[in-house]
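Lab notebook, entry 181. We have the chain sequence and a SMILES string for coenzyme A, and the next step in the workflow is to get a structural model of the bound complex before anyone spends time on docking refinements. Request logged below.

Task: model protein plus coenzyme A, output structure tokens.
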Amino acid sequence: MFQSRRRWNPQVQGMAMVTIRTERDGDAEGVRVVVAAAFPSDAEARLVDALRRGGRLVVSLVAVDGDRIVGYVAFSPVRTATGATGVGLAPVAVAASHRRRGIGAALIEAGLEACREAGYEWAVVLGDPAYYGRFGFAAATASGLRDEYGGGAAFQVMALVQGGVPVDGGLVRYAPEFGEV
Ligand SMILES: CC(C)(COP(=O)(O)OP(=O)(O)OC[C@H]1O[C@@H](n2cnc3c(N)ncnc32)[C@H](O)[C@@H]1OP(=O)(O)O)[C@@H](O)C(=O)NCCC(=O)NCCS
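Result returned:
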């Protein structure tokens, strides 16, 4: 169970304190709402439900404002062609009303820390390098890794411990639920 060590307080005057914590029983509906609203379809929300059912949510964190879930991030296992296991960050979502206040960054940073504490040594993400670069992600092709979706430069990797990124691991596969939704 991950609980952010610090109570994280967005630097916005007048905004109630937002807490980052592990998802718990009773959160699923709130997670569904925030994730479905953040993407063009409910595919990502259904993906989270499928990952939860499949026991693949290595790390699953919510951002809570009062009693409302306003943000969510999931990490699930990924595996290289050579058998190295890491984590994939997906999806991350913040309610439109709460964006650009650092909540997405706080979720991602807390999630990466929780993955590290769980013993994972590397993480991948498919997303905009301009956003994920700030967390330490860099082009995965430079490490000899590629993704199943032709993500190209959007497919990024970072070490969670020094030297943690597998070398020339080839194709990185996400959990099977990614192919089902
Ligand atoms: C991406 C998302 C989670 C960021 O949440 P957030 O709480 O606003 O994030 P932060 O406040 O930590 O960071 C906001 C900053 O990132 C930038 N940013 C946000 N989303 C971005 C994106 N997709 N690509 C590049 N930059 C992005 C913002 O412009 C802002 O930049 P600034 O700090 O220079 O102003 C949120 O915008 C969201 O839910 N988007 C819809 C779902 C989505 O696209 N998820 C990611 C899929 S890869």
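Notes for the group: The longest strand covers residues 68-80. Worth checking against the assay data. The beta strands are 18-22, 59-65, 68-80, 85-94, 122-126, 138-139, 145-147, 155-159, 170-173.
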